[in-house]
Amino acid sequence: MAYANKLKDDLDDALREAGLRVTRQRAAIVKVLTEAEDHPDAHEVHRRASEIDNTVSLATVYRTLAVLSDKGIVHRHAFEGAPARFETADAPHHDHIIDVDTGAVVEFASAEIERLQREIARQHGFEVVSHRLELYCRRRKDKR
Amino acid sequence: MAYANKLKDDLDDALREAGLRVTRQRAAIVKVLTEAEDHPDAHEVHRRASEIDNTVSLATVYRTLAVLSDKGIVHRHAFEGAPARFETADAPHHDHIIDVDTGAVVEFASAEIERLQREIARQHGFEVVSHRLELYCRRRKDKR
DNA sequence: AACGCTAATGCGAACCAGTCGCAACAGTCA
DNA sequence: TGACTGTTGCGACTGGTTCGCATTAGCGTT
């Protein structure tokens, strides 16, 4: 997923466009994120980025994830009882199903639920700024 | 909310029924929770419980909240970027609207959203174990 | 190609919510 | 009242994440 089709030059541009310096470390981190098929946490990003550039420190991973998150380039998800996990923000909006047994994450989207959320907020005199919808699930035994 | 109508004796029973000893500290903590109209975090529960019994330590608050949570007597909610907040579990199931400006929490329920969640999970081969739905909102200016 | 401004980095210390080990303590039931 | 054992307070500790600071290094300029 996520910027996976973009080339490295484009990624650098994405950073620059956000008014950020393109450092070796950031390039490595962004590369890791764009190539990730899963939702890695900070330590995992650090581990993977270290393979590309072993000067990347964990602190920089956190700082970079924070800045990318601010810029809306990546999304941070703090699922129940686990360190935050990250994904690039290029995919259309979606929420998550978390497999409670494996920790695997599946994405889904429901325009209908989104609509109901806005409606409920409105009924209470609010407007939705953001939301969090996570389904903690287990694979169905009876597949039928 | 929450057990607010029960008397202290009933609360003690609730603890005993769960196979737990009724200690002064637990009684104080449970009292705080049953009388809370809001969703206090552990430190706030500790502060309030200390007024009833100043021997209550923060560790015991955490331990008691954990055990009550295990027993399903209270619910723990870890909202975005804030320490976990607690509420008694006597009210019917509901999700939360969090006012991003004030931190205030409003409860709501939507059978329709619940239904859609189960449907989505099923479509992906899962069944919902639990879910988290939080609407981070702002009061509407244009009350129109 | 070296220059300079200042953002970004690595390191380790600090932070914070929450947990744990342990000896002292106190419910509960006989 | 006694004894068994669950609970407690304390302070140490953890794990994820952030911060302070001196050093390094982008990148627009000369």
Automatic annotation (TrEMBL), chains A, B:
Main location: cytoplasm
Localization: Cytoplasm
Gene: fur
Subunit structure and binding partners: Homodimer.
Pfam short name (any one): FUR
Organism listed in the record: Paralimibaculum aggregatum
Keywords recorded for this protein, A-Z: Cytoplasm, DNA-binding, Iron, Metal-binding, Repressor, Transcription, Transcription regulation, Zinc
Domain of life: Bacteria
Name under which the protein is recorded: Ferric uptake regulation protein
